[in-house]
Amino acid sequence: MANALALAVLLAPAALCAQDYPAKPIRLVLPYPAGAGGTDLVARLVAGKTGEYLGQTIVVENRPGATGIIGTEIVQRAAPDGYTLGFGTPSSHVLSVLSGKAPYDPIRDFTPIVTLTDSVFALVVHPTVPAHNVRDLIEYIRKNPRKIAFGSNGMGGTFHLATENFRIAAGGNLDIVHVPYKGTAQVMGDMASGQIQMAFTSVTGAVPFQKQDKLRILAVLEDERYPGLPDVPSIIETLPKYDKPAGWFII
Question: In terms of CB atoms within 10 Å, which end of the chain has fewer, N or C?
Fold first, then answer.
């Protein structure tokens, strides 16, 4: 993984300053639950490959809650010795700050090391929802107000924002029920069991469930179709004014 190698190279100056660095395991604090779609997958891949390069274990520590604030605050309060890294997303480092809830300053309190990836998001529904494209879903919601419950990774989180942007792009008159969770793992679990009917999530988190026929991917949140899912339309094809949220992961 190229970005894991980049992280290892960027950590190398610390090793030059302290020849025994890293002399003990490094922890990577992930402010989302274990199994939380793309974040958990990417964090563990990067930790494994970077640890191999450095010759030291990097332990992923899941500390979910408050749309990423709890885990990110742990990183803020940690000793600045290179042995605590944080996994950042727009939810933890932008939206939480804009909402006034975060007790940290993302610029003053952290040093960015590397951008890992720019995640691709998708709009998904439970198979019982009689919609096979975005237009069908909008029409169904309008005819059945408050019958659709959507899950997100927390109030004010990336996927909550994605859903509100969906409402706006569709005309603003969609009456759906918001169910906030600590992370996308719980969202996908309740989606698979039918307790919620709609969500925005990462493509990496959605595809395994679609293969098991536990959800249906209606669109990807890209300007064009995603090469990995060429048969799935871009949401822009139906809602050209849709404003997709950022989806980067950083260390």
Answer: N
